[in-house]
Every structure is written in structure tokens, then in C-alpha cells.
Design the sequence.
């Protein structure tokens, strides 16, 4: 008769907003500390130019992290997102070079990204390969494909309008950041207000519970990996727009940054935890440290140590907070 | 001799709940001290405080005569305390022997692990305890009951002298329960102290010396077992007697809700035939391995079948996936609550709505108001004890978790409820409440197909009982022919 | 007696290995590069293949390499596999200075001559080492930087940034050290900022250059030590409109860098001769198998290309070695 007394620790979903207040509060404090510290130590940090740079720099990882978040909520992982960034950049650039209009090439590229993701879903659901291994295989295949279709060369000389996608600003806000925020709102809505968002959390708790509750795993698993890769493909398109070329080696190890952002933001690799707002803050924190490190000329190796330590502190503090709540 | 544990005035407050209020608990050497109480009575909290897992807010604690101020699980272990919980917390991939030595394997003079010596010593102890278990096999290769026995033997091996058994028999067969009792008697004769937590009254009377009753975080009474009986204990715990518990007001069965013909899934079960009527509780009884769980899983569409037919309201149906069954108005409660029925890390609200989202979503968007309303009405109707519907279900007691599972099926307005051991790991009080819910469901015309391996329960509730033996249907017994001996004979493969 | 037997065995082994060389079969030379995904390494392969095409009866060339330069482990296993396959000779540009040593020594002990190119490996047991003297190249870059500043009539004062593609790679360390030493020599009043590393990621290079340009208003020069960083720096200077106030010098050449050179975003490129490295690498193997004693080190030279000379034939070849491929 495990009469564990209910504690008042709120949890995922029931109150998706409430749970995040705890984690997000920790993160907000870190962001504020970082901003106060950097604006005191660097005269340019708080300038419009730098903030706009920072937002542009963060957007790519930020977008990938939102897709990764959904996969992680289902207790999965997608290591192939960095490779998808590369292949999306190349495929879209090749199409543009061939004269395909942007309005066609971009949606088509996103669809290709989604198909790669669904291939991950196929491996995970039909073949029952663990997500880590499945997406690792996909990563390698896609990296190879990128080299084959690009001939290991950058694809340059893209239409000028394409580059403008990334450099444009609306009321001084970089377009890349706007795209990221639109995806953030969409993702947050999907996770908090839709049936499929609920399904992701339930599947992340236990696939058997989900199945016995009448949730069909197949469409949900395909959807989550497809979405994740579609986000990564969009990130790849934006990245190539930012660089005005398709780069076959783009996105190497971006999956790790995305996972880090999700985890800093309160996601758990055990599944059924995490929020879009947390992932956004996680990405901002990571890039702010890199940006600040560059501005201040901090030793680059010390900077990596700091970022690594920060991941552990953010996750550690959150763990302790949760355990306190549970222990009473 | 000094008391092993002397706890006085223990108080523990969680936000919003007074989990323990001025509780006294004393454990003597050579004593088996049973701890009973309803769900939420404070048993687990008390154990966690004694074992150092929680800090107490007030009260004094002496372990073996020593005043304890700050306590933690390591210190408790060092003081010779050990607890065996219901869910086995051992390393399942390691061998039985390694689990005994966990982290401190004996070494030879060469500094290598002394496998021979280690396995010999474990083997000796296991044999000594009457357990036929090879210390070299990986734990996970053993049946669950044997794994539990390993978990029980481990503190004995470690020489702990204060042992806590929390629902140790939940996974055990009768034979192993006997072995457990002999182990406990032996520990007792060695002057060790045992705290025994169980829902099963027979066990408490079979093995313990004294019993402490908790209710709502308060200490009700501690009394020698010899001076009391099951009825009194239940009354102390819940304020009503046991005989009332299984007595439900029967509904008049109506039309046939579900009919099963020649259902077969080799090698689990074959040629199963029965029908369940609206307003009826239809029991499925059998020992472990009889195929009772497999049968109802197949009906629900969770597992495939080889042949046979399922008729729903007279129409032949086939459920390829649980979602088909749910859509057809069938609810399901698994025997493995934590792994199959509830999403542990998610909130009570989500869990109540687990199967309800298709119904309350339009164009894929969840109607949040309907979701909250479903949770609210369930919590109210089933009197689920939770500070709010946003609390993770993991933090609720077993009984309240099970009520959420029932709520999940009420929410989908299931007309047929298929349930597997609906009161497993649930305390007496919550059991009674679950029976009351079943009663009201049958009066609303819901058909209940219930698996239970607990005879008093199934005999008390069911209108008819189908007995299974090794996947074979031994017969259907109707209520006026219920007889414990007959059911057991059938379940053991003997004709009545 | 024992020695004699060993000697005999060794002689036999050598004879077996050398055998086909006497026979008129073309000898197989395996060329392993750091990465197949860059123009630079493709140019090395073009040089090597051109040699084979010019000597079809004598030499065949097989090429291999990991897809990305960061993948040290994969290159080691490619080398190990190649050694066990047993070509007549190996030309390798080793990403790591240490990791490939055992396999290289193993090949040499089997009688397969190994010529290392581009990156020095920490063993003496190689047939020859062909490389650009990267320290000298770095110095050349520093010299160019000061000369360009002077030509623009600017005082040799202010800050200079160094964006390095990756930490811990010997070639880049040499370039960076050469640049630092050169700067001290030619313009002691210029302050060199701490190097920033970008993991050979062009987006990262762009971000870093952006941050450096913004946070150092007195920045007068930038040194980018490979094509990735060079392209990134060029992009930022073009975007921020600072290409005329900040002198950027980069190493290597690829289409983006060449374009930047033409547009003035990069003021000079220090280019090696990868084509020559591949060509001479294979040639060295042929000569080693013929029993010739090779010099331990051959400098394949670093050259400065500017907007002024970029259209001259020599420099054109250096800038676009891939165009020299014999079909």
C-alpha cells in the first residue's frame, strides 16, 4: 500500500505551462545573469547590431532544437538532423542553380527533409531499431548522399533574392529569428493544445500505455521524426541562404547542440518532459555564451569548458529542484 | 534488550497534506511488526522516514538505542537496516550472486574477482533458505516470483537486523509465500526485527506478532495480533467491517454485451466460449500461466488471435488495435498498472484523459475545458485523493492511481469494462471504493469482465466465473454454485 | 644461423614485393587525403591522377579519404585497410600527426614506401615528406597584410584578428605561428587578438567574424587560416561594408575565396600547390621503388596571389588546380 503522499509538484501536460515555470524560471535567471554580465563587460553586447547578430546566430540551432524537442519528448533521439541541414542546403541550392523558383524549391526541400525523417520513423517503428542507432545510420547515409550529389563541392552563385531570405529584417528584427519564433509558437501550440502533442508525451512515458489507451504508434512515430527532419531541412535552407551557398559539410555536430539546447531547456532523454519555451531559452543561452566569448576575447577553449559546465549546471540544478520537491 | 526502533511523535508535513501526525512506532528484537492502514494513511511515509529517505519535521528517533538526528539511506544501511519493496530494485542484467554482492565483490589474493567463492557462498545461503536458485544465472532469466525471492534473500545475506517487507507477496505464489514466512520466522528466532506491510489479512495473522494501525497519518492503535481479528483491523483502518466489503448490490443482467466463440491463440489459450451481459460481472479465474491475461488482452485487440469470433451486441467484430475496441465502447485495465495503464511522468489530468483525446479533440486540437472537466468530474466521482489534477500521477498512492485508471474508462463512457486484477497493489480502503464503483457501473448497465486470482474477491463480486487451466476453459460456474474448493480444483486442472 | 634465415626471408619478401615492379605491370599507388569534400584535397587527387594518366603503362592511382577532415579515426582505418590490401606505395596527407604512425611504420616495414604530404607525421620512417612550409606561408601572409596596409596609407597600428579553422591541427598551428611571428617582425605595433576557432564550420566562421568586427572598432586586419574561415570572413566584410577598411588575408583557394579576391573582400590569398603535392607525391613513390634515395623533406612552396596577379597563367593554375585534370 504505497501510500506515497502526493506532493504538489506539478507535471507535464496537465499543466504544461506550470511545470515549465520552474525550469524556465531557472533558465530565465541564467539568461538575465548572462545579459547583465555581458552588457557590463562589453560595450557592444547590448547594441542593436550585436543583438540582431545574436538572434541570427541562434536561429539555426534554435529551429533544429524545436524539432529535436518533439522527438526527445517521445523518448527518442534524432542524430541525423545535422546531415539533414547539409542535404537540404545542397538540394535547395542545386535546384535554385537549375532555375527552379524559390517558391517551389523550398517547400520541396522541406518535403525531402520530412521524407528522410520518416525513414527514421520507419527504422524505429517497423524495424524496431533504437532511435539512437537508426538515426546514426541515417546520419551516415545522408552525409554520404550529400557528398555524392554535390560532388563534395559547395554550390554557390545562388540568386540574390535567396540570400535576402536570411538577411532581410522586419522592423529591425532579423527574418531568421522571425521564422524561428513562428516555429516556436507552432511547436508550443502543437505540444500544449493538440491531440498529437498529447500523444507524443504519452508515447514518451510508455509505448505500451499509449497503445492500450488506443493511440496508434505508427502515424505518431512517423510524424514526430518527419517533423523533426522538416524543421532541420528548413534550418538547412536558412543556413544556406545566410551563406548564399549550399555547403556539403554544413551542420556537422549540430545535432549535439540541438540536444544540448533541449536538455538545458528541461527536456529529458527518458521522454515525456520538455517544453518549446525551454528549448528556445536553452539555444539562446548557448549562443549568448559563444557570442559573449567572442566579444570579450575569452580563451576559446575555456569557453567550451564554460558551455559544457553550463549544460551540467542547468540540468543539475533542475534535477535537484525536482528531487527536493519530491522528497519534501 | 533495547528496542531496535523507537520512534515517537513523528510528524511530516508535505505542502497541503499532513502525511504523518505525531506517530509512535516501536520495533522490538525478535518481533514481526505489521503495519496496516488505508491508502494515504502514512505507511510509506513512515517507512521512508525510518529508512532515512525522508526527513521528519518533528519527533524523536532511536535506532538500537542510539539517538538519530540527521538520517539518510546510507546511514540506515550502515545501521543494519534494509527494505524490500514491491517493485524489485535489483540489477536485472547481473547474476543473482552479483546482486548479492552488488559493488563489493570478494576478490582473490590476485585482486581478481573470486567468482567461485562468491557463488558458493550465495548458493549456500539460497539453499539454506530453501530456494532452488542458481546464483550464476542472470536475475532477469528468473520468473518474477523468483526475482522477488532474491530481493528478499539479499538483506538476509547482508546480515541486516532490521528488515522492512513492503507488500512482499504481491508477486509470489503460495509456495514461495511459505518460503518467505519460513525466512521471516528464522530471522525472528535470530532476534532480528521485521516490519511487515501487507494488504492481505491472512498474512498478517499468519506471520506477525503485533500490528500497528495508521489512519489518515495518525496512529490509531498498536495491539498484539493474538488479541484481534481481521474484522477489527479493517474496522480500525476504514471504519467498516470486511464482510461488508465484497457485498455489493447486484444489478439485474440485461442483454448480451459481448460474446466470445472459440477464441484461440496458441499456445496461450484455445477454444474459449462465453458471453457477458450488461449489468453483469463476469469473472475469469485461473492460476499464473492459465492464460487469463492473454485471453482478455486478445479480446481487447492488444494481441492478435489465431481463430475464434468476438460478437459485440450480437454483431461479429474484430479489433485489430486497442483503439478499435475503445471506439466500440470497451475499456481496459491492465494488471501491470505502472507499465501499461498509466503514464507515470504525466499529470493526473492527462492520465484520466488518456483514451479520451479523440473524443474531445476537433481537427486535432484538444478542448482544454472538456479535458479539465473530465478530470474534475472523475476526481470528484471517484474521490481520488490528489492536491490537484496537475500533479504527476507517480506521486499518488496505488489505490488512487487505480482509481485514475477506472476514471480513464469512465471518461470514455465504456459500456464494457475489461479489467485484469483491478485491485492489485491497492489497500483495503481503496479496494472497497473500487467495488462500490463496480457496483454502480453494473447498475448503469455496464458489463464487467474481470480477471482476478484472489478468490474472496472474485467470489464476492462475480455473477459467474469462468475457470481457466493452462489455456483451457474448465467450465463456467454460476453464483449459486460458487465454492472455493471447487474453483481451486478446476483451476488446478481437476474436474469438479 | 638465425640471422641468416631472417636475412633470407627478408630478401625473399622484398623480392616478392619488388617483383611486379620489374615485370611491366603498372604499379599501384594509393593516395589518401584528409577529406574528400574539399577543393584542396580534390586538387591533390587531380595532381596524382594526372601523373598516372601521363604514365599509363607504369602507374595506376587509387584514391581514398574520409568525407570530413575532422574524422581522424576514419582516416586511420582507411590507411590500415589500405596497408593490408598492399599497394606498391602510399601517399598520405595525415590529418593527425600521431594516430597514423603505427600504420605508416607497419607499411614501411612491409616494404611499402610511404610518402607523407602536407602534414608532418611524428615518425622518421617515411620515404619522403612533401609539404608547404606552412610557417613560411604564415609569415608571407603577415608580410602581405602589412604591405597592403602600407599601400592603403594606413599606420601599422590597431588590432589584427586570427580566425583559425580548427584547434590542434599541425598545419594550421604552423600557419598561425608563422603569421604571429611575421606580424611581430614586420609590424610590431599591431596587436594580435587571441585566435578564435570555428570547428571548420562556415556558419560558425561567419558568426565569429561578425562578433570580432563588431567588438573591435580598431580592427585593421584579419587572418583566416584556411578556405572555410576565408570565405566566412569575406562574407562578413562584404556585408558590413568593411572590406576597404579591414585587410583580410586568407589561406588556400576555393571558388568563394577567388571571388572574394576579385571583389576585394580578401586582399590576398596564400596558396599552396596541392596539385604539385599530389603529382610529386606519386612521382616520389615511383622513384623510391626504383631504389632512388629521396630527400627527407621537400618544400612544395607557398605563393601569394593578389587581385593584381590572379589572372596570370601560373597563378590561375594555382587558384584553380582542378581545371588541370586530364580527362
Sequence:
Amino acid at each position: 500500500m504505497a501510500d506515497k503522499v502526493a506532493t504538489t509538484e506539478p507535471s507535464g501536460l496537465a499543466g504544461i505551462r506550470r511545470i515549465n515555470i520552474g525550469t524556465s524560471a531557472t533558465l530565465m535567471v541564467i539568461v538575465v545573469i548572462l545579459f547583465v554580465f555581458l552588457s557590463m563587460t562589453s560595450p557592444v553586447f547590448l547594441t542593436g547590431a550585436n543583438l540582431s547578430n545574436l538572434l541570427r546566430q541562434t536561429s539555426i540551432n534554435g529551429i533544429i532544437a524545436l524539432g529535436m524537442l518533439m522527438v526527445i519528448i517521445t523518448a527518442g533521439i534524432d542524430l541525423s538532423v545535422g546531415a539533414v541541414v547539409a542535404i537540404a542546403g545542397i538540394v535547395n541550392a542545386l535546384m535554385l542553380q537549375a532555375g527552379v523558383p524559390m517558391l517551389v524549391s523550398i517547400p520541396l526541400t522541406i518535403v525531402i527533409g520530412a521524407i528522410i525523417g520518416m525513414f527514421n520513423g520507419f527504422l524505429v517503428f517497423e524495424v524496431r531499431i533504437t532511435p539512437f542507432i537508426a538515426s546514426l545510420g541515417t546520419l551516415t547515409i545522408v552525409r554520404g548522399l550529400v557528398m555524392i550529389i554535390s560532388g563534395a563541392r559547395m554550390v554557390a552563385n545562388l540568386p540574390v533574392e535567396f540570400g535576402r531570405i536570411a538577411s532581410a529584417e522586419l522592423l529591425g528584427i532579423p527574418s531568421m529569428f522571425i521564422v524561428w519564433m513562428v516555429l516556436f509558437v507552432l511547436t508550443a501550440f502543437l505540444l500544449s493544445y493538440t491531440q498529437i502533442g498529447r500523444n507524443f508525451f504519452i508515447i514518451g512515458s510508455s509505448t505500451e500505455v499509449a497503445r492500450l489507451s488506443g493511440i496508434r504508434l505508427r502515424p505518431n512515430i512517423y510524424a514526430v521524426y518527419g517533423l523533426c527532419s522538416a524543421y532541420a531541412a528548413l534550418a538547412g535552407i536558412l543556413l544556406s541562404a545566410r551563406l548564399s551557398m549550399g555547403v556539403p559539410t554544413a551542420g556537422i555536430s549540430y545535432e549535439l547542440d540541438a540536444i544540448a539546447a533541449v536538455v538545458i531547456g528541461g527536456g529529458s532523454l527518458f521522454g515525456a518532459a520538455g517544453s518549446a519555451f525551454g528549448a528556445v531559452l536553452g539555444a539562446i543561452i548557448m549562443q549568448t555564451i559563444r557570442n559573449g566569448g567572442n566579444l570579450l576575447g575569452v580563451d576559446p577553449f575555456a569557453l567550451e569548458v564554460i558551455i559544457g559546465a553550463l549544460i551540467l549546471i542547468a540540468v543539475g540544478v533542475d534535477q535537484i529542484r525536482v528531487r527536493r520537491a519530491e522528497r519534501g | 534488550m533495547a528496542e531496535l526502533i523507537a520512534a515517537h511523535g513523528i510528524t511530516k508535513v508535505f505542502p497541503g497534506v499532513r502525511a504523518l501526525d505525531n506517530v509512535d512506532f516501536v520495533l522490538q528484537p525478535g518481533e514481526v511488526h505489521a503495519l496496516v492502514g488505508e491508502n494515504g494513511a502514512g505507511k510509506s511515509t513512515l517507512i521512508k522516514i525510518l529508512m532515512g529517505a525522508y526527513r521528519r519535521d518533528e519527533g524523536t528517533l532511536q535506532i538500537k538505542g542510539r539517538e538519530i538526528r540527521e538520517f539518510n539511506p546510507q546511514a540506515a544501511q550502515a545501521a543494519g537496516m534494509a527494505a524490500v519493496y514491491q517493485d524489485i530494485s535489483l540489477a536485472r542484467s547481473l547474476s543473482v550472486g552479483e546482486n548479492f554482492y552488488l559493488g563489493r565483490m570478494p576478490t582473490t589474493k590476485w585482486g581478481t574477482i573470486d567468482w567461485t567463492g562468491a557463488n558458493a557462498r550465495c548458493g549456500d545461503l539460497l539453499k539454506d533458505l530453501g530456494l532452488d536458485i542458481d546464483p550464476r544465472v542472470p536475475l532477469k532469466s528468473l520468473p518474477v516470483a523468483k526475482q522477488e525471492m532474491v530481493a528478499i534473500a539479499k538483506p538476509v545475506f547482508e546480515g541486516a537486523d532490521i528488515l522492512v517487507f513492503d507488500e512482499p507477496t504481491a508477486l509470489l505464489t503460495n509456495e514461495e509465500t511459505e518460503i518467505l514466512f519460513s525466512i521471516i520466522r528464522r530471522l525472528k528466532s535470530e532476534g532480528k526485527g521485521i516490519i511487515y506491510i501487507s494488504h492481505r489479512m491472512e498474512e498478517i495473522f499468519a506471520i506477525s506478532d503485533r500490528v500497528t494501525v495508521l489512519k489518515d497519518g495518525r496512529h490509531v492503535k498498536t495491539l498484539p495480533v493474538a488479541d484481534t481479528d481481521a474484522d477489527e483491523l479493517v474496522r480500525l483502518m476504514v471504519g467498516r467491517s470486511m464482510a461488508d466489503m465484497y457485498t455489493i448490490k447486484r444489478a439485474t443482467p440485461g442483454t448480451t454485451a459481448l460474446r466470445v466463440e472459440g477464441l484461440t491463440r496458441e499456445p496461450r489459450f484455445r477454444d474459449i466460449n462465453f458471453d457477458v451481459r450488461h449489468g453483469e460481472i463476469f469473472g475469469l479465474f485461473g492460476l499464473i500461466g492459465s492464460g487469463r491475461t492473454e485471453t482478455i488482452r486478445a479480446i481487447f485487440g492488444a494481441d492478435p488471435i489465431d481463430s475464434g469470433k468476438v460478437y459485440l451486441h450480437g454483431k461479429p467484430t474484430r479489433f485489430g488495435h486497442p483503439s478499435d475496441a475503445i471506439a466500440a465502447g470497451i475499456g481496459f485495465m491492465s494488471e501491470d498498472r505502472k507499465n501499461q495503464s498509466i503514464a507515470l511522468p504525466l499529470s493526473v489530468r492527462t492520465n484520466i484523459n488518456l483514451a479520451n483525446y479523440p473524443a474531445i479533440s476537433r481537427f486535432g486540437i484538444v478542448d482544454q475545458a472538456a479535458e479539465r472537466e473530465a478530470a474534475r468530474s472523475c476526481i470528484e466521482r471517484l474521490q481520488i485523493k490528489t492536491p490537484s489534477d496537475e500533479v504527476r500521477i507517480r506521486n499518488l498512492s496505488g489505490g488512487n492511481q487505480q482509481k485514475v485508471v477506472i476514471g480513464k474508462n469512465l471518461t470514455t463512457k465504456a459500456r464494457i469494462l475489461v479489467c485484469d486484477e483491478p485491485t492489485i497493489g491497492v489497500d483495503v480502503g481503496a479496494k472497497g471504493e473500487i467495488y462500490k464503483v463496480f457496483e454502480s457501473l453494473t447498475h448503469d448497465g455496464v458489463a464487467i469482465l474481470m480477471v482476478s486470482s484472489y478468490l474472496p474477491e472474485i467470489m464476492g463480486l462475480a455473477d459467474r466465473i469462468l475457470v481457466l487451466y493452462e489455456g483451457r476453459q474448465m467450465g463456467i460456474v454460476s453464483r449459486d454454485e460458487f465454492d472455493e474448493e471447487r474453483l481451486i480444483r478446476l483451476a488446478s486442472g481437476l474436474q469438479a | 644461423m638465425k640471422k641468416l634465415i631472417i636475412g633470407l626471408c627478408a630478401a625473399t619478401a622484398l623480392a616478392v614485393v619488388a617483383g611486379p615492379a620489374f615485370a611491366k605491370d603498372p604499379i599501384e599507388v594509393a593516395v589518401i587525403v584528409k577529406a574528400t569534400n574539399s577543393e584542396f584535397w580534390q586538387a591533390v587527387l587531380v595532381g596524382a591522377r594526372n601523373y598516372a594518366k601521363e604514365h599509363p603503362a607504369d602507374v595506376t592511382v587509387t584514391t581514398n579519404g574520409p568525407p570530413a577532415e575532422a574524422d581522424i579515426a576514419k582516416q586511420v582505418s582507411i590507411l590500415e585497410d589500405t596497408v593490408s590490401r598492399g599497394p606498391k606505395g602510399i601517399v598520405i596527407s595525415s590529418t593527425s600527426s600521431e594516430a597514423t604512425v603505427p600504420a605508416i611504420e607497419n607499411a614501411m616495414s612491409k616494404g611499402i614506401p610511404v610518402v607523407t604530404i602536407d602534414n608532418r607525421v611524428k615518425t622518421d620512417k617515411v620515404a619522403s615528406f612533401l609539404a608547404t612550409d606552412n610557417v613560411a606561408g604564415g609569415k608571407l601572409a603577415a608580410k602581405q597584410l602589412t604591405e597592403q596596409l602600407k599601400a592603403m596609407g594606413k599606420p601599422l597600428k590597431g588590432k589584427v584578428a586570427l580566425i583559425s579553422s580548427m584547434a590542434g591541427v599541425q598545419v594550421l598551428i604552423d600557419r598561425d605561428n608563422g603569421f604571429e611571428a611575421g606580424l611581430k617582425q614586420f609590424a610590431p605595433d599591431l596587436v594580435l587578438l587571441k585566435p578564435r576557432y570555428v570547428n571548420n564550420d562556415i556558419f560558425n566562421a561567419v558568426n565569429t567574424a561578425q562578433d570580432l568586427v563588431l567588438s573591435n572598432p580598431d580592427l585593421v586586419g584579419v587572418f583566416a587560416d584556411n578556405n572555410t574561415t576565408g570565405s566566412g570572413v569575406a562574407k562578413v566584410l562584404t556585408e558590413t561594408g568593411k572590406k576597404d577598411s579591414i585587410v583580410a588575408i586568407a589561406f588556400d583557394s576555393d571558388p568563394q575565396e577567388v571571388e572574394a579576391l576579385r571583389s576585394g573582400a580578401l586582399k590576398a590569398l596564400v596558396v599552396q600547390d596541392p596539385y604539385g603535392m599530389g603529382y610529386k607525391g606519386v612521382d616520389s613513390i615511383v622513384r623510391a621503388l626504383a631504389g632512388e634515395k629521396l630527400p627527407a623533406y621537400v618544400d612544395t612552396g607557398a605563393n601569394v596571389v593578389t587581385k593584381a596577379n590572379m589572372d596570370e597563367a601560373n597563378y590561375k593554375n594555382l587558384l584553380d588546380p582542378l581545371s588541370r585534370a586530364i580527362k
About this structure: Chain A has a mean pLDDT of 89.
